[in-house]
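Worked example 2:
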Amino acid sequence: MTIDPPDGPRRQSMVRELAGMAFDWEFVEGYRKGDPILDELYSPAKNLLLSKRSLSAGEIACYAGHRLIWQTIVERGDPCAIVFEDDAQIADRAAFDNAVRDVTSAPFDIVKLWDIKPKPVVARRRIGGTQIVVHKMIASGTGCYLISRDAAARMLGRKSVFRAVDEDFSHAWEFSVQIWSVWPNPVADIAAESTIEAERISRNRRKIRSLWGEALQVVKRVRHRSHLLKAQ
């Protein structure tokens, strides 16, 4: 997924990364910050009630792009797909190839191949030669992940957006999906810091919103522990 022009550096970087892959791939044109669909998709009221912070236009556009990919998977009837954001870089090609082959040989919902600052591992499983894990809390980052058609349909069951896409991943129980990660991650980030991450850091949060966010985090931790028991 990209909004880079055809000759843009990120698009060209992904062309090089994906050259010679054993599967077919294509660019999906993402949304830009001013696209009208973003206003239709975003729910400020739900964001205020159910999210620890407001979303930037870039985060909403990013989520809309992921939803477009999920919708394409469902409409085509593809059994699964691997999703790349355009700042991803395959750090270990052999491990990546093995992970894709192994994970897709077994039933799965979502398996991440790239995590940002992952928490300690609380569950492990081996599929073929690939180890997949569950972290204490699902890590940020949606730069590269495998998703099944059924999981894509469940993620699309939510008609409005009020959290960032990776924050919704960390509320996996709301979608009845299980999310694992390949360990160690075979995919990394070519950018020192993403534009979206910079937007997150730069925003100030009001004190009342911060307190409400802390309360939401407590509920999240409790729900996540219950969800982990099902994964194990």
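The first helix runs from residue 9 to 18. The chain has one domain: 9-231.
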